[in-house]
Amino acid sequence: MVRSLNANISNGRLYRDRWLRGPERTETCTTPLCNGKPDVLRSPLGRCLTRLYEITAGELTFDGQEIGQADTKALKPVRRKMQMIFQDPFASLDPKRRMRDMLAEVLTVHRIREGAAIGKRLDELMELVGLLREYLARYPHEFSGGQRQRIGIARALAVEPKLIVADEPVSALDVSVQAQVENLFGELRDRLNLTYVFIAHDLAVVRHASTRVAVMYLGSIVESGETEALYARPHHPYTRALLSAIPQPHNRGKRDRILLTGEIPSPLSPPPGCKFSTRCPYATDLCRESWPALSPLTAGREVTCHFPLG
Question: Taking every annotated instance into account, which residue ranges of this chain make up the domain ABC transporter (predicted)?
């Protein structure tokens, strides 16, 4: 769970208010998705969750443990339970090391396997992500983009985590490869009972990859709920405008595209009230003066709006 989180990045404060409450492991294959602009506020979310960024204030709780202010020693066992998959698969791999060495290092550092058991575990990981065992002897430059991302997934799975944070894991891949990697995420989720925080900007990827969605605007969640219900009936004005931008190839008639006007405020200096009030066609004085809380609307739905849409 994250509440009132602050993180200093580029001399500014990132995130405020509660914006994410993750599912329990007992909930089957629930996948929160975060979508919205600008990207500078989406991607740091994953790095905050995994404590790759310094947390200066607020509450960050994982598996019943407060980790927002934990030191490096205390974080080591926590990071075995949560892993991150980065957007650029090539930049996240050491170009001078073979795949076998990189994956084996993860097992050794966390004391998960020793001796011959390491080789057996590496074979299991390659099978899980659909790569040949012979590829373990290769260097990163010898793989395609999709194969590199599969290696990144294998590295995350090596420690048998409870949570995987995936930051735009398919956006750097060719369209023809994206679907393969998306399907792999789904297969692994079902097979290993994983929980993902899958950060994406592509609305088609969001719908395909998730069972739950959280829509973000300037660093805060404005609406969350089950994927199909949210896509069918959005309750926040920003969500409705965002979804209206999805191309409809089978609808050749007039589309009800919602075009937003008004000034986009700086995420480092947002307006005193609702962050969306400068662009919202329904904004009132209350919206411009008071930030609404993320409140339950219907079963499984939450919205940050004084006047949610019907």
Answer: 2-243
**Domain total in the chain:** 2
Does residue 215 belong to any structural domain of this protein? no
Residue 32's pLDDT band, with cuts at 50, 70 and 90, is very low
Maximum average pLDDT range among 33-37, 38-42, 44-48, 128-132: 128-132
**70 located within any domain:** yes
Distance CA 147, CA 253 (A): 40
Measured torsion, CA atoms of residues 261, 265, 270, 273, in degrees rounded to the nearest 10: -10
Give the CATH number of the domain where residue 63 resides: 3.40.50.300
Query: Cα angle at 53 between 75 and 103, to 5 degrees?
Result: 60
Instruction: Show the tokens assigned to 273.
Output: 């009230």
Distance CA 169, CA 153 (A): 9
* CA 36 – CA 260 distance, rounded (Å): 14
In a domain, 302, yes or no: yes
User: What residue numbers bound the domain in which 305 lies?
Assistant: 233-310
Asked if 235 contacts 222 with a C-beta cutoff of 8 angstroms, the reply is no
| CB contact at 8 A, 215 and 222 | yes
Asked if the structure places residue 227 within a domain, the reply is: no
Determine if the pTM surpasses 0.90: no
